Write the structure tokens for this entry.
Amino acid sequence: MVCPHTLQNIALSHLQSTDPITMASIKIPDFSDWRNAFWGFGRVIRNGEGRIYRIVELKDASKEEQ
């Protein structure tokens, strides 16, 4: 599901940063149709600057985070 070009961009981004880790995530607009399979996954919660604030599993997520 991830092409080599995307992995190369993630690796390059990490090498150019001073962050201890780099990860990729996607934003799913809704869980209809084929996207329903992603409903049970954890959520990446970002702050106002778009940086990762925390990761929360579905069972622990608030209604807003779900």
Summary: The chain is about 20% helix and 15% strand. The first strand starts at residue 43 and ends at 46. The mean pLDDT is 91. Helices lie at 4-15.
